[in-house]
Amino acid sequence: MRIPTDSMFQQQLAILSQQYDSIARLMLQQEKGKKLLANSDDPVLASRIDMTYDFLNNIQAYSQNTIIGKNRSQLFDTSIQDAVNTVDQIKQIIQRAGSDTVSDNERAAMAEQLKGYMNVLLNDANTRDGNGEYIYSGYNTRTVPYILQGGTYYYQGGLGAIEINIGNNTSVLYSESGFKVFGDVLNGNGSFTIKAADTNTGTASSTPGTVTDKTSYVEDNYTISFVTNSAGKLAYQVTGSASGQVIPPPPATLPDDAPEYIPNSDISFNGMNIHMSGDPQVGDSFTAAPSQKENVFDGLQELISILQTPVENDPVKRAQFHQKLSQSSEYFANVYSHFVNYRSEVGTRMQVIQNQIKINDNIELNQQAIYDQLSNVKLEKVASDLSQQLVYLQATQDCYKLIQATFMQLLKGF
């Protein structure tokens, strides 16, 4: 029989202590469901868990931003679609107003209808979200974008937009510049605009004109003047502020060599074409100047003023009316295209958000699974390990009791 020694007792006590610690640890893991009870248990694993947890937090933040971005984009879409519909109604009014069978009173009634559309467009431009922030005020989200001051509409929001991150290297618009949407529209045909002189006494008017050849188009401030040429015919001449004499081309002289004016014909020069109709008088003139940016509200206010001006029984005023109305018609055609294109941008943004929502959801599910695998214990395995440790503990306790009993028998022999 092996005689028990003090070292054997100490060894058994150490084993018992380790087993008690293991059982206590397993019981805590079973209670908390976590692999690590302290980072010191496994520093490498703890670091991986922390990194995965931080990544999950970032993805969840992106997911929150996609909700915000989606709600904002829906506001953009609703407001711009309303603006598209409103401008379409304005275009129809312009078309009806151009008929010579429409009376001054009927056009005045149309002008009142346009005032209602002005309020609709202002409400669209000054749209706010549920927090009271203006969506078309750029980085000045608490500032009303468009205001009327002294008969003119001013944009007082920020010119820069605000974006929010909805994914890794992916952002979406949160606040848009209202100047870009409602103020960044070129008047005239988008290249140049034509105006009749207020002093004209004839009945001539023009179409908005077109750029027929972009390669030969020369941007300038042109004046089309009606004169009498050397043949005694009513003629026209064209000069530019920078271009100088254009028609007739040098070395022909003004006004003697100016070409005869033919009603309902085209005047073409420097890549431009302008169709003229009616009967101008000598001394009448038109200007063709580069298009300028104009906000839709000032453009609409100008149209209201055009329709409010009586023209019945006055051929000269009627010619001025048709001239101004043709320019306004072209402008609102530009506005309509501008709004439609912007709505397409909004639709693209909404698609980006929808795609990112799917990406974020997939990443979050994947990372959550990794996090659970790294940090959470499998309760079935813990229960199995605990049961096994209890068996080991029982065996160790039995061994310790056996050593203790043997030692006591030895003592009795003395």
Automatic annotation (TrEMBL):
Keywords of the record: Bacterial flagellum, Cell projection, Cilium, Flagellum, Secreted
Domain Flagellin N-terminal: 11-141
A Pfam short name: Flagellin_N
NCBIfam families: flagell_flgL (TIGR02550)
GO terms of biological process kind: bacterial-type flagellum-dependent cell motility
Upper taxonomic lineage: Bacteria, Pseudomonadati, Pseudomonadota, Gammaproteobacteria, Legionellales
Protein name per the record: Flagellar hook-associated protein 3
InterPro entries: Flagell_FlgL, Flagellin, Flagellin_N
Subcellular location: Bacterial flagellum; Secreted
GO molecular-function term, one example from the UniProt record: structural molecule activity
UniProt KW Secreted keyword: yes
Family of this protein: Belongs to the bacterial flagellin family.
Keyword check for Magnesium: no
Chief localization: other
Record-level GO cellular component terms: bacterial-type flagellum hook; extracellular region
Natural source organism: Aquicella siphonis
